[in-house]
Structure formats: structure tokens, C-alpha cells
## 1
Amino acid sequence: MTATPIRLPVMSRARAPLTLTTQVMNEQGEWQDIALACERPLTLYLNKREIVTLMTLGEDPEALALGYLRNQGLVENLADIEAIQVDWEVEAAAIRTSRQVEDLEELLSKRTVTTGCGQGTVFGNQMARLEQLQLPDWTLKQSQVYALLDRLKEHNATYRNAGAVHGCAICTAAGEVLAFCEDIGRHNAVDTLAGHMWLKGLEPEQAIFYTTGRLTSEMVMKTAQMGISVVLSRSGATQMGLEIANRLNLLLLARAKGRHFQAFTAQQRLELDARPALRPGDLK
């Protein structure tokens, strides 16, 4: 990836606690302290217009707000955003832009509620815009998939501590994890990563999007909107997620655990250079 110098908006730094401690009783009737993942509402206001309420962990709310607006096509240029201010006392993020969003009311009227954890949304005619993108067309090696999966085991800190969250990452084919985010919903995590990419001026070349969650239409579309053409998931895919990946020629790898994975689309973009040894019964 390359980084392009950019002008950043004025932003608060309102990171909230990610976990809290509570007492539970186990099957033996014993009391113990455990960590619990936090969940809090964050309502986004764009130029004082209420847009959506997201249920979030609160790890990086400014990047979440920015990535959400970017992935929904509500703001096209980072330079147009003057400020992002998050206030957890009122559970709100106020985003101010230098210009009004064209056709905002029309875009909001075309909202589709998706199956994302919590509540995902897709605004306007996103597919028409996506099909105009020129996504990178490159070949990924099987050995690179395995190396990346091994590297990602170092992350998921909140999940290991408290569970109940999804993790997403932006990675390179060389196995570098450029950004990692955990949140209550996987759509929030990918929006946060989109915000990070925008703020850091990262332009994807041979980039991979990783998620612990399922690959729905919304997740595939958001990956494409970030200019990434390889998606790797520990979970499965939906019928519409597969259809959209096919239309955009995304290499979609799902159920990736250990040395196993399933290539759902664009199989010609995968080089099988590290096939695991067959075990008795594998060919049945």
C-alpha cells in the first residue's frame, strides 16, 4: 500500500472502555469475575441531520463515523470533512462538512436494513456505483493465506478477554496487518477500518480484507468500496454476498481456519502452491 498526504479533519479522541467486569455463577454454583464486552449506542449527525444509530464497542468512534459515511457514499472526499466530535455523555457523533451533501434526503429515503449484527444499512443505488470501480486484479498464493492466518492469531485481544465481538483487518499479501479493529458488529469494524484507511491516506494495491464474521452482501460491498479485491473470512458467505463478489471479480475465501478454506469466487486468482497433505478419508 502507498500513503497519500492528506489534510485531516479536527477530531475528538473519545475512545471508550472496551470491557467491564461482572460477576457470574458457574455450573458448580461458584461466583467468579469475568470480563464483559461493552455495547453502547452512537448516533451520527451529519451537519445536524440525524443519520443513524450504531451499536458499538467504542474503540475508535471517530474512524467508525468517518468510515460509515464513506462506505454509504454520503461523503466522497475526506477534504470536505471539517470536524468529527464524539461525546459519550450524549452518545452522539457530530460530523461537520464544508459543503452540504447532495441529494441527502433522497439517499436516506432509499435505506435498506441489512442482516448485519445490530443493524446494518445500505443507502442509495450502491451497486451501480460499485460496478464503475476498477478493482485490483492480482493473484494470491495459498502459502500467503496460511501465513496471514497464522499472523492474525496475535490479534483479537477483546475477543480473547471477553468474547462477543467481531474482528476485522486490512492486510497485505506479504502478511503485514496494517490495521485491526474489533466491534460488536462486523459492519462497524469494517467501517472503522475504512475510516483508518482514509485518515492515513492508504491506497490499496495488493490488500486483503479479513473478518471473523460471515460475508454478506453488505460486507462484500464495503470491501469493494475500499478498493480491495480479496476477502478472507473465518465464517461462511451468503448467496447475495457470493453473487456480488462474482459480479465484481472479488476473490472470496471463506471458512478459513487452520489449513482449510473454500474459494467461492474468482478461483483463477488463487495459486495453489501449498496444498496440505491428504489424510485418510479426505477423498471420500
## 2
Amino acid sequence: MSEERQGATEVTMSQQGVKSGRFLGSLKDALAAASRDDTQRGPAPAPVEPATQLAPKAEAPKTAAEPVKPEAAPAAAPTPAGLSAAEAAREVKGQTSLKPQDKHLEFGSPPTTRVVRGGPPKVETTGSPRTQLVRGKVQVKRGEFEQDPVVGWLVIVGGAGMGSFRPIFEGNNTLGRATTQRIPLDFGDDTISSEEQAYIRYDSAARSFLFVPNLAKTNVVSINDKRPTGAVELNQMDVITIGRTQLVFVPFCGAEFDWAELTDAKD
């Protein structure tokens, strides 16, 4: 068999191999076969333009069964704290101008809690003096009385104004419904005389209290359910009834204490 017929036979067999589904030979074998044909037919043809040169054999199309290898993804940038991967990608691409601490405004995620170390910031206060710390024995200044010193109280336990109290001052104290009285009983009991219904006097020398009713008034008063006709010494927790009002006597000064002790110590 001649070489030309042998080449034709090989081409025919190659075509039959393609029809039968067999894979062609390598690119090197195909070029060798073409070179043998060209030497038998005549001189070598002119150089082929680069565009018409024989291209490498195309790969067979990939079927669904053959997995496609994914390309290597670029290294992901570190995700900022408090952002999801999608938010981080948008931050890198410059598609959002929100700051990380403001992401919750767009995506609905809660804001990140910031930890403040070193305690709360100091707030400067102006206008109010600072409290001074006192150490050792306290030196208290004792001057003159700014008002009449309180020597006891009358506490209302019955009638109008129940639960209220009125202070008793040193010297002579007048009791009455009018507000001009030194001990005003102005709680609404109209059976009390407006002026000088009675007197309460504290004697600093004797350190004693005296209750003196005003016998010129028509409404009588009583102490512990007794109607006095003259001055009566008051004792702690005595009950005084004037009109429809009951008062309890509570002394502050007496045998155990008097304001004179403080004034004498000052001298």
C-alpha cells in the first residue's frame, strides 16, 4: 500500500473514531500526520497568518455531572466589629457612608455597647461650696439668741388642729384664738377667746412652769379635768382643756436643763 493511500486510510479511520465517540490523538500526532501529507503532496505552503494557525484543540463542554472548580476567592477583609459579612462588603466597596456605630439605623441591628473604663466623667460644679470635713473636737460658737428661746411645747391631742403643736417661750405667754397671741390657738375653735384666754409662764430662776387662767373670761379652762381658780404648776404630760380643744404640755427646760447653762458657759 502506498503512503498516500495509507494516509487516506488513517484519515478515514480517524473520522470513524470520531463518529464512534473515541477521543482523537494528541495535538502532536495530528501535526505529525498533517506534516506527512504535506511532504507527499508538494512544497510546503506559505506561512499561515496567526489568526488562521491551528488552535489548540478545544476542550469538550463540561456536563452537569462534572463539578466546576470555583476560582480562588480573594482574601476577605476583616469584618468590623458589630457588622455582618454583607455589611462589611458594602463598607469596603464604599456603597454606604454610615459609620459602624450607626449601622443599626439602616439594618435594624441593636447598637454596640461601648465600655467606659475609669469610672464616670467628672462633672465640674460651680456655685455651690464644697462640704468641709471636720476632724477632732468641734468648736461650736455660742452667740446671742436670734429669737425667744423655746422652753416647751403644747401638742393638740383633741379638737380642731389635732396633731399640731405650738411652742412655749421663756417669760410670759398669752393663749388665745387671735394670731397676735404669743401662743395662738387659731385652728377654728370659736369657743376659745380671741385674746388672753389664759397664761403660761416659765420662770428661769425657779425652772418651773405656771398656768394662770383668766377668770375674767366667761369660758372656763381646766387642767386634768380640774378647774383652777389661780396659778397652777404644770408638770410633764398634763392635759389642758380650753373650749373644745385639748392640749398636752411637753417641757423642754426644767430641773435638768435651762438655757442659762449655755449662756453662763459662754462667759
## 3
Amino acid sequence: MSPGYSATSTDDPFDPARYVMAESVGYLISRAKNTLAHSIEQEVSELDITHAQASCLIMLSSGRASTVTDLGRELNTDMGSITRLLSRMEKRGLIERTRRDDDRRVLDVTLTPAGHALAAQLPTVFCKVMAHHFRGFSAEEIETLRSMLRRVICNNSG
């Protein structure tokens, strides 16, 4: 049976006539994401940060993001929410924001030493959560899932 659809003779896995929300690939991906996010939220609360703050720290420390705009895009969050999040992180001494001299519209975001120290702890936390939720999965199954998710993401960009 195709995920998200009841069995019929048609081969179209996205036939609206066969749609079953609770088995929909989109619904299941969303539920899995929410489950992982909740577990990460619980784990990082011991470090006195939120999941969103942890994600920002990881993005900055890995070089995946370096500006407020980068963070908004990578975290799929509106600029107002990112600004409020970064304000809280700046007050805690985890990040610094600076305007570029050549383009005052661009705000660079950098980790402070305290931010780097906290970011260094996060891979262990994230991996602990992933190991728990993916127990029983083989390395091959996890790589297949990664590959499939990359394809879904790539299909959105073209």
C-alpha cells in the first residue's frame, strides 16, 4: 500500500480519491519532525536554551548561516521571530550582531565565547535524541532516508 493512500488498482500514489490523512507522507514527516523537535526541546532545556536557540547556535557554529537573513531562511522563520530570538540570545551573551560597513542593511551574527562553548555541547544532545528515535534502524536505512529527504528538498528548488 502506498503511504497516505488506500490500496486500489491505480498506480498513482498521490491520487486524491485515495487520500488518507493519517497515512499521508506529508503528515507523517510533520509528525516525525514535531516528535524530534519536542525531544530536542526537552534535552536542551537542561542547558537553559530553547530548541530554536540551539538550532541558531548550530547554524552559526557550522558556518551554515552568518547573517540574520541566513538564519531566517535556514530555520524557515520570519524575520520578526528571528530578530526576537536573537535579541534574547544577545542579552544572554551567546551572540553578537553587527551591521556591515559596506551594506548597513545586512546584520552579521557571530558567536561569543559563551556561544561557542554552548554550541560545542549540542552535537552530543542532537545525536542522543536521534539515536533514541532511530533505534532499530540500520545505517543503510538512515542513509536511504537522508537521500530521500534531500530529493524532496531538491524537488522544491527547481
